[in-house]
Amino acid sequence: MVLAARQAEKLEEVAAELRAAGGEASVCALDLANTAGIEPALKELLAQVGQVDVLVNNAGITKDMLAMRMKLEDWDEVLRVNLTSAFQVSQVLMQSMIKKRWGRIINISSVVAQTGNAGQANYVASKAGLIGLTKTLALELASRNITVNAVAPGFIETDMTAVLNEQIRERLLGLIPAKRFGTAEDIAGVVTFLASDAASYITGQTIGVNGGMAMP
Question: What gap in Å lies between CA 194 and CA 69, rounded to an integer?
Answer without folding.
Answer: 39
